[in-house]
Amino acid sequence: MTEAATATIPVPSDYKSNVKPVWCPGCGDFGVLNAMAKAMARLGLRPEELAVVSGIGCSSRIPAYTACYGFHGVHGRALPTGTGLKLARPDLTVIVTGGDGDGYSIGGNHFLHACRRNVDLTYIVMDNRVYGMTKGQPSPTTETHWTSKLAPLGTGINEFHPMAIALAAGANFVARGFTGDPNGLADIIVQAIETPGFSFIEVLSPCITFRPEQKDWKKTVRHGNLSSTADLALAARQIFSDDGMNLGVLYAGARPPYRPPIGRGRVAAADLAAEFRI
Amino acid sequence: MPHPTDIADNTSPGAAQRSSLSVALVGSGGAGVMTAGNILLEAAATAGYYALMTRSSGPQIRGGEAAAMIRIATHPVECMDDRFHVLAGVDWENVHRFAAEISLAPDGVIVGDPGRGEAPLVFSRSGAAFEPLPLARIAKEISGGRANMVLLGYLAALLGLPEDALRQATASLLGKRPAALEASLVALAAGREAAPAAARLVLEPALAGPAARWLVTGNEATGLGAIVGGVRFVAAYPITPATELLEWLSPALASVGGVLVQAEDELASINMIIGSSFGGVPALTATSGPGLALMTESLGLAVAAEIPLVVVDVMRVGPSTGIPTKSEQGDLNIALCGLHGDAPHLVLAPNGVADCLQTAQWAVALAEALQAPAIVLADQFLGQARAVVDSPRDPRLYGKRLCAAVGSKDYQRYELTADGVSAMAIPGTVGAAYTADGLEHSERGTPSSQAADHVAQLGKRRRKLELHDYGALWADIEGAGEFAVVTFGSSTGPVREALARLPGHIPPIRLVSLRLLAPLPRDRLSEALAGVHKLLVIEQNESGQLFHYLRGVADLPPESSSLRKPGGQQFNPGEIAQHLIEWSGT
Q1: In chain A, which among 120-139 make CB contacts under 8 A with chain B?
Q2: Fold match between B17-203 and B474-583?
Q3: CATH node for B17-203
Q4: Is the pLDDT of residue A5 over 80?
Q5: What are the backbone dihedrals phi and psi of residue B17, each rounded to the nearest 5 degrees, phi first?
Q6: What's the pLDDT tens digit per position in B322-369?
Q7: Which of 186-225 (B) contact A at CB < 8 A?
């Protein structure tokens, strides 16, 4: 995009690159890319003021499809990378993206601590309840009885509950969106970015290749069924009586973000040597 | 053939004055051994001596037996001596556990309270004379008096340290607690009074005043070098023996406008600093072997995505948890070869306490200039040793990154330039947005599975390290002759001292102490070893990691051999001197 274009009213296409996604036709992640671009345009941020950071997996390919600064790192470590970037460069708007395997399995510990640390980031997890890039293994959010080559009898393990975990661990904003509703999702993303602190968005993003039954999500989701609250107890009650298909903002708190000062020194580096002189 | 202890520069029995004396202060937890040790060290510094202190303690988190081992000399010291001249015990509780670390000279002295019984046999059988000092009785007569301070006053007198220097050092360390200071000064005087008028073990007068000297640990020097080099972001997870480096960095960074973040684990540490550096803020993490092992996947990412960063590994005995409080040069292999794929990166090693500053600063400068990760191999000895050193020279090395300009035309992040270094766009730069990627990529940064792109980018990443001019800092080269010793890191101190003890006894031996281990400047090493017929590689690990590495990548003389010793106990100069005499065939 050119300088001249930024001077005009931004449009979603300003935020997309011309790199062709590797995703399967019909993949839910296209909708997330569209929703992100819409949200960025609505916020009126310049692409170079935005950074999109990801780990590994189908959805983690998203940074290169944006026109923003992007970072496509190693599996499971998108949150630390985004955290380091945001702490070092508080002037940037940092969006961390990824999938359920990347965020809840290999990166699970970072998820807990990112919620707890409450750095001003927006974390968008495209949850399709399967490892797509490695062709169909169960993830932490896969239903217990879903069978696959790797787990022919199902996992026999209870599903992970990301929104409950996020609440308990201290995320300041918790919401669920659906990729089939890019406008609604864009609204949530805008709100997440505008809310200081760590914002977590679970996005139902079907994998039509390995979980074709997820095509039905467009019929089963309930728009606006979650009611936003700043009361943690109410939010917890709501999320524990939820079947995973209710959409909207669950919790928007007012916890101050972790923002250690950077760039405001009062001492010259060389003067630090004074304490060692005899 | 001379025995190395006979040719040592200062341990010859009977000398009226010594150029170097070593003292071990021991006692149970809470006895104040470390306080006394620190004051003694600072007093030596104030009096114009060079000195070095290491510490050892039992496995208990708190309250275990402790030893402060201090060497005071008229010349710079980078290692402990072969033997201790004085063993001073506040008490003898469990101190036999330090027997392997504290070898007493036969003409040495054991000082202790007769009321506490005799010193353990492992010490007294050295032949050292026992000097009774009724610590408890003297201390009891002083209001608030403590045995450790009485012992310290006695020791300072024994060694010939000026009273003023001791008082000044005590005031400097205890000045914030006036009551303790007052009682301590009285106790010091009482201890001094109890010392023999004509001591056998006295230091030669210091040659110069303490002007232009520092009292610093290797960990502190590393931290300072990093900040002066340009680091403003550190993320790390606590681990012995790197923790003090982080604890020094935390307030120091804050004061210069930087930040230290305690990460949830080492995987987070390394990726946080990758994020910071991608954002344009030079970054570092510090860890030890187990943490480095966790970081290696992401070091591969930093190589592929060309992210400058520094990882300091304060090495300890491995593998696994090993011995966290003891030193070993055992992480060389993982630092050199632990990354997956063909992943050219930098590996450096400081070779002294003060050199930690220069090496860390250089590592930042190299990482930034070459947009590559640099691993700095310090170790527990260098990191935790506190030393009086000559003021380190400022190497004037600062991180300087080639950045893309605003409005770069047709910007390509991974452009195939002649020297392999391509301009890095810092987020915020208009017109240069790109995605940094661990996936192989085209020049533009777009993911690519084409072999041609892989070959081109591999070549770029190798070329930028190989073509760089590393200057003279790659190694310290001393001496001449047809024999040579190659070493690195904390082994350099005892090797250097062994060589200094030997002139006239054996043929001249060259010393090459490598500061840059990867990429190894092979041509410069060949030059440094020109005319050498016989080579010895000395290192502190069991398997000879440096020896095998050099055999693999460098042209060594046919007669090359290895001297190695596992970690847990540092080399001393005497054992190296002994080996050099045998090895050089005289």
Answers
A1: none
A2: no
A3: 3.40.920.10
A4: no
A5: -130, 145
A6: 999 999 999 999 999 999 999 999 999 999 999 999 999 999 999 999
A7: 210, 213-216, 220-221, 224
Neighboring chain B residues of A273 at a CB cutoff of 8 Å = 214, 224
Q: Which CATH architecture has domain A17-276?
A: 3-Layer(aba) Sandwich (3.40)
Q: What are the residue ranges in chain B where pLDDT is below 50?
A: 1-12
Task: Determine the Cα–Cα distance for residues A17 and B180; give it in Å rounded to an integer.
Answer: 69
Would you call the peptide bond into A47 cis, given omega within 30 degrees of 0 as the criterion? Answer: no
If we measure between CA atoms, which residue out of B564, B358, B185 comes closest to residue A273? B358
Q: B256 and chain A: CB distance < 8 Å anywhere?
A: yes
**Residues of chain A neighbouring B264 (CB-CB closer than 8 A):** 109-110, 112-113
Give a three-class secondary structure readout of B518-545.
ECCCHHHHHHHCCCCCEEEEEECCCCCH
The alpha-helical segments, DSSP class H, found in B256-329 are: 266-278, 289-305
In whole numbers, what is the pLDDT of chain B averaged over residues? 94
Give phi and psi for B415, each to the nearest 5. Answer: -60, 140
ipTM attached to this prediction: 0.97
Contact assignment for A74 to B254 by CB distance below 8 Å: no
Question: Could you report the per-residue pLDDT of B200-244, keeping only the tens digit for each?
Answer: 789 999 877 667 899 999 999 999 999 999 999 999 999 999 999
Q: Is the pLDDT of residue A2 over 80?
A: no
Give the percent of chain B with pLDDT over 70: 97
Residues making up chain B, counted from first to last: 586
Chain A residues inside the 8 Å CB shell of B270? 80
